[in-house]
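Sharing in case it's useful to others searching the archive later.

Someone asked me privately for the predicted structure of Peptidoglycan DD-metalloendopeptidase family protein, so I'm posting the question and my answer publicly. Question first, with the sequence:
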Amino acid sequence: MNWMSKHFTFVIIPEGNQSVRRYRLNRLALILTISCILLLAICSALFIYLFWDRSDRVQKLSLQLTSTEADYEQQLQSKRVHIAALQGDVLQLTQQAQSIERQMFEIEQLESQLKEIAGIKEPAVRISSSAYNSEESGQGGEEVPVPVPMSTGGALTARTMDSYSHIQTNIEELGPSLKSTINALLKHQHTMKITPTIWPADSRKMTSQFGYRRDPISGRSSLHNGLDIGGRRGEPVYATADGTVTLSERTYPHGNNIMIDHGRDIETRYLHLNARYVEIGDKVVKGQQIGELGNTGRSTGPHLHYEVIVNGSHVNPLPYIQDARKDASEGEDIHVQE
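And my answer, the predicted structure tokens:
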């Protein structure tokens, strides 16, 4: 204890005329003071060391973060460019799809015209652009996005665009083809309307065919320039094609007779009628009743004498009557009486 109670005196002599300063410390206080100074120095050194170590780590992490951010920014920019390209492709695909839809709608209209011309009554099932605006064409359901991997999106888009282009090319080629078909069909339909292809009467009983025969009144051989169809007096007689009436009169030996000009140098004539329903200049359509079967003029009984005249010359009417060829091939009720 005596050692600890000893004192030390510190003398500070300033410069000039200032007084001398003395500080008296016992050994315990001196030891504690020195210990505190050492501890403070050690703590300061440790703090400086830790501070520089942390600073170095923070700097390295900052550099690493900056590099990572740059990589991420580069990747993000690449994704943005890729997304912009995909959006452009999607827009182009959408435009192609809309163009294809419009062309399909036009083709469906052409199909409807073809069916109408051909007499097909079944309605065509179609999806048209107007369906999206119609109150009667509701649509719905859960939206399930289609996953498209970014790495394969471009290739998939390219393949889809190629497919669309191929389909659009086929549609563009099909449209004019269908229009050409419609025009050809309309032309054929018009040709069929003005071509005498149906029976001029309800009866199918042919009492005398075209060509040479024994005359039923004189008994001499003569040329029969038409087709005789037997029936009852007053039965309807029909125009066998569209045309214009050029003759409607009663003469001998023809009796009541009518001539129709069908164009293309084809005419038909109907003789021995009981009555005439049309006059010169009248327009008639195929299947229209123009008179009644009768027995006027030089005739042995009720019948229709039917002639087909091509380029001014009489021809056999039978090949023109399509029903006759069909019925004959199927063995239906056609009677020929000489």
